[in-house]
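Tokens for chain A. Residues wanted.
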């Protein structure tokens, strides 16, 4: 059976594992909440001794801040990525985060736009106006395709309607 840890031993070990935790009550035991104060934010916290030993942190809020700061991409790195995905987007503010709108200017049309980093990463573009114009241009029939669409009345019993679109040849036969 494991030996019991004294209050002085527990405080010494916790000071090494988690220097941002200051206990306010005597050591209650390894699996019971230990009342104390987070020295980073000043919040009252009650972590278990075993959690301090395994995770090295006492305050959940401060732990989340540390984790997100590690995962967060820098402004320079975000600008490099966006320059590859959307070269006609110029950010006007520092990088706010992947899911938040990032104000900037579209070089193609001059509009102020606010795409998210994720939308540009997924290839959805950065400017709604330019995206709409590109979509309309892709769906618009060229003169050659429009001239190729015709009614063929060679056979009086059958009418052939042929449409040649950008996506291929589509034919419809209909009985009269």
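Reply:
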């Amino acid at each position: 059976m494991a030996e019991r840890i004294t209050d002085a031993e527990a405080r010494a070990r916790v000071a090494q594992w988690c220097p941002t935790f200051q206990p306010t009550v005597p050591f209650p035991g390894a699996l019971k909440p230990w009342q104390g104060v987070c020295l980073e934010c000043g919040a009252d916290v009650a972590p278990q001794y075993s959690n301090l030993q395994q995770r090295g942190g006492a305050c959940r809020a401060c732990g989340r801040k540390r984790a997100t700061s590690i995962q967060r991409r820098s402004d320079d790195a975000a600008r490099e990525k966006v320059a590859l995905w959307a070269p006609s987007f110029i950010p006007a503010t520092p990088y706010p985060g992947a899911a938040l709108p990032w104000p900037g200017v579209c070089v193609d049309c001059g509009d102020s736009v606010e795409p998210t980093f994720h939308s540009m990463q997924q290839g959805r573009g950065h400017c709604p106006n330019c995206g709409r114009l590109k979509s309309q241009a892709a769906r618009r029939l060229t003169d050659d395709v429009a001239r190729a669409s015709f009614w063929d009345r060679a056979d009086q019993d059958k009418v052939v309607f042929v449409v040649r679109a950008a996506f291929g040849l589509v034919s419809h036969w209909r009985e009269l």
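Confidence is low (pLDDT under 50) at residues 150-171. Residues 4 and 161 are 90 Å apart (CA to CA).
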